[in-house]
Amino acid sequence: MARAAPLLAPSLLSADFADLAGAIRAVEEGGAGALHLDVMDGHFVPNITFGPDLVRAVRARTRLPLDIHLMITDPLRYAEDFIRAGGDTIAFHVESPVDVHATIERIRSLGARPGLAVRPDTPFETFEAYLPSLDEVMVMTVQPGFSGQRFLPEVLPKMRRVHQALEELGRPVTLGVDGGVSRETIGLAARAGAGLFVCGSSVFGTDRTPQQALRVLQAAYQGAMVDAVP
Ligand code: DX5
Ligand code: ZN
Asked: Which ligand is in closest contact with the Cα of 202?
């Protein structure tokens, strides 16, 4: 039996920055469930991308939910700017040197969904206590900073643990996977419990159009889940 369509969230980091409107149209047509926006400050990660003004410009072009991934040193200070710019989910890193609880509370009190992103090598125990107060957990399967890296399968056992812990919570918390998601790896993440799939280079960096690339990812997901235990 075919599963429901996976929630695919194309990452604009891999799109042509001079034609973001075209990229947004293409992934809307391809059935994207959200847009993923990677914010990097050149300090928390060794790359710089964009800030709230770009998020605001994207917000004006689409009704898709905006999943903001903050790879910055001070998410507590900047969360509000990204929410006011139109972010629906604000995911920041548990490894950032801030009061994690206070940042989650700030995001929720401003009306957005709090999310926590975790680096590939961050152990489950370091963020387990935050799970009950979150709406999204973004498990990274590459080192944050750049698109186009290889998926790290050694993260899958942690993904399964997070999935199990979220199931036990008894309320819906989105489990996302970010990094190296492709037709070859989407099934691995799905079988480990992921429900939201960030995809950068596998949507914008192939010979196919983004519309076709999203269909390929959807088909690969269905193929991997068709005989999975329900
Ligand atoms: C990496 C970013 C990812 C990246 C994904 O730091 O968080 O969202 O854009 O790109 P791919 O899918 O190419 O790994
Ligand atoms: Zn990301």
From this structure: 1
